Amino acid sequence: xxxxxxxxxxxxxxxxxxxxxxxxxxxxxxxxxxxxxxxxxxxxxxxxxxxxxxxxxxxxxxxxxxxxxxxxxxxxxxxxxxxxxxxxxxxxxxxxxxxxxxxxxxxxxxxxxxxxxxxxxxxxxxxxxxxxxxxxxxxxxxxxxxxxxxxxxxxxxxxxxxxxxxxxxxxxxxxxxxxxxxxxxxxxxxxxxxxxxxxxxxxxxxxxxxxxxxxxxxxxxxxxxxxxxxxxxxxxxxxxxxxxxxxxxxxxxxxxxxxxxxxxxxxxxxxxxxxxxxxxxxxxxxxxxxxxxxxxxxxxxxxxxxxxxxxxxxxxxxxxxxxxxxxxxxxxxxxxxxxxxxxxxxxxxxxxxxxxxxxxxxxxxxxxxxxxxxx
Length: 375
Fold this sequence. Notes:
Blueprint: H1 3-11, H2 24-29, H3 37-46, H4 48-61, E1 66-69, H5 73-86, H6 88-102, E2 104-112, E3 115-122, E4 127-131, E5 137-144, E6 147-151, E7 156-160, H7 178-199, E8 202-206, H8 210-222, E9 236-240, H9 249-263, H10 268-271, H11 276-312, E10 320-323, H12 335-343, H13 349-358
Helix pairs in contact: 3-4, 4-6, 7-9, 12-13
């Protein structure tokens, strides 16, 4: 129990508002999802735009890697050792991807006694949340065919994407465009039929008598695919062509624009025709969105994973999770800064070359001249 929960209990402070909207029947079985989660998985697997958006945002959020910082070196070692054992890098990437696809990711915290010893990503489509009338989580339920598994609240770390107040679940990245993805799928199937019909249109044959029609039918059935029919008599072929004025580009472009806008990902097709200024504004907007998701995941991991690890060792400082690669003081130095340090005799030219090499500059070592100089 946290400090605030202890204060509320002592002072008799209780939440009055009823938040949970699920019927009491669902409180024991877990609240049902608003949509079929299999639809999200289907379009992630099948639609190239949806998959590219999810994968691109996943890489921006968690694919950059992370490092930990702490003043207490022992606390940092405890966290880093555990992260290496459970492969936390890969778990974070998979969890963020699941969170974007389904709206939620569930990480089981594996305990040995009271000590956290492992993390396991649970398939999101199998999980449900149990809450009381006031919206407090009282447990989780996993349903796999006929097998039902109950989890205590502290055994599951739930990461939710864009969860609204009072809701049990987050919102999938694909939800705003789900109906358009379904429409796009049906349009593509229809376009396939239209193109086939346009390339090889049906022909309406007009002949004088039914007997002529039967003879023509037999002749057409006997022809090879590349053989033209040659017949005599009053026969009039009328191809049933599609009116070329029927244009579908506008509707299909409208679907694409709405899907690109709803996915909020810097897709290449989205930036292809943008000006440099427009592309910069788009990418800055994406950066802010990514930073917000990173901050949310960082806080949850620190509070529900790192804190448990250090407290089990009797330590108090919780190490911080930082996204990206570790930075040093050298990263903040410019070439002018290094030149001024050499000019003021703070560092030697040799030390400056070492620093430049660490910063990635191609500094070549001077070869010693062991031969005799020509006179």
